[in-house]
Amino acid sequence: MQLGIPLASAFELWGLLALGGQARNECIDVQAGPYLGARSLCLESTGHEREARAVVDSLSRIITARAPMDSTFDRSLYVAEMALYSAAHRSADAADLLRQVFHESPTGIDFRLLRVAKFFNGDLVLLGDSLRRGSWERVQESASRKSEVAALFQRPE
After folding, report:
1. 155 Cβ partners below 8 Å, 6+ apart?
2. Helix axes 94-104, 122-152, angle to 10 degrees
3. Cα(38)–Cα(52) distance, rounded to whole angstroms?
4. Residue (of 138, 147, 72) closest to 108 by Cα position
């Protein structure tokens, strides 16, 4: 895998976890970078429950601003990772975390990942799709307002 390219590691982690079986044993060696939800799921699936709990606790502290995050990444990435972890555990807070992710960023959770049944059930997929549409509508509305305001301040020729 490409060192220093976190998204490549994320795809590798997600893929190995989705494949399950022997493949998931390989995820232990993947450098997770900011993809702490996937890292925790990997650790759990390979019998490292205590380490998995420590990772998800760190992730929880990051998204609640009780621990520093890597400033290279947007906070929404960490919230998305917690949503992934919660959805994979069929936790009741997964829907709220999805809402928070798409409130913070229109990209939210990768649409391909959202469709991996091992992580997200059908209701969460529908919710995620709806939230993504709403997020991009807000972006378009904001861009339109900015264009209108800019036009007010243009000098006549």
Report:
1. none
2. 20
3. 10
4. 138
To which H or E segment does residue 118 belong? none
Distance CA(26)–CA(49), nearest Å, equals 16
Query: CA torsion sign, 91 to 92 to 98 to 101?
Result: negative
Residue 156 DSSP one-character state: P
Residue type for position 54: A
Q: pLDDT tens digit string along 69-114?
A: 888 888 899 999 999 999 999 999 999 999 999 998 888 888 888 8
pTM over 0.70: yes
Length of the chain as a residue count: 157
DSSP codes joined into one string, 60-110:
HHHHTTSS---TTS-HHHHHHHHHHHHHHTT-TTHHHHHHHHHHH-TT-S-
CA torsion angle for 15, 18, 22, 26 (degrees, to 10)?
40
What torsion do the CA atoms of 67, 68, 74, 75 make, to the nearest 10 degrees?
10
